[in-house]
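Bug #2210: token dump truncated for P-loop containing nucleoside triphosphate hydrolase protein?
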Amino acid sequence: MGASKIPAEDIDTILNHIIPHIKQHITIQLTCPTKSPFVLALTGLQGSGKSTWTDALASTLRNKHNYKTINLSLDDLYLDHDDLVKLRETNPSNKLLQARGQPGTHDTTLSVSFFRSLIDSEEISIPSFDKSLFNGEGGRVPSHQWETIATCDIDIILFEGWCVGFQPLAEEKAQLRWEAAGDATCGPAYPTDTLKEHAVEHILGVNRSLRQYCELFMGPKHFNYLLHLDTDNLANVYEWRMEQERALRQYKGTGMTDEEVIKFVKGYMPAYELYLNQLRKGLFAGIEGKGQLRVVLDQRRKIIAIKSIA
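Reproduced locally. Full output below:
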């Protein structure tokens, strides 16, 4: 299965797990003085098809199940261009902050304001970030161009992002993980042991930023359900992204080379190494009424397992 199309039966299978939680939430909301939409978080590895899954799920929720659904990507919450430039220029030795993506490159004030407005405002404006601006460095779309919608018209918000659902480690544990990592100077063509390619203080900085995200807008208390697109082999991430970029080069004449893809994906690998195992164990441990589903994809992005996480 390619990333461009997800079988309708797969979407229906996934939603069969989620819809009971949505119905329960909406029933509870009928007696709540303060209304809040159902927050369906979607997290997935690079190249797993997060955007395609998000669009398919949102469309099915709207058109088949009649839920008023909006979606937001974590990417739309990036710092604006000038702030991203300032961040990388003030941290020249930190490879994790030389491009947008990592915790620490998003606008936490904007993020908190958006999610609060879902509850305490009559309407919201949905942030948007255009990755094509500034020669591909990206920049925020002017706020007057954002889509505005009445909050009473929202049953579900589908919030997707590559590190959504990740939880920070205790600083000592993150340090120990870094110390135990393998030698980054040798290894396979598609490396999945990359922590030592970064200074420990840079790894710890991302961990601190993730902690702030989770406290403010991205932790388990902020979500009702988490859908996790995972794989049985982490090296698949490289192949998936290469496939996407090759298609871009073929149809648009632009896209990363295979070598550039490897460099790009390696930038995300440290977070996978630190946080994926905990995510697989469960985001909502000890929290009643919430749910998590792990969807395991093979090299061709075909579903090979669906696991409900208690």
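Output looks complete on our side. The beta strands are 38-44, 69-73, 123-126, 129-130, 139-140, 147-150, 156-161, 225-231, 291-297, 303-309. Marking as cannot-reproduce; reopen if the truncation happens again.
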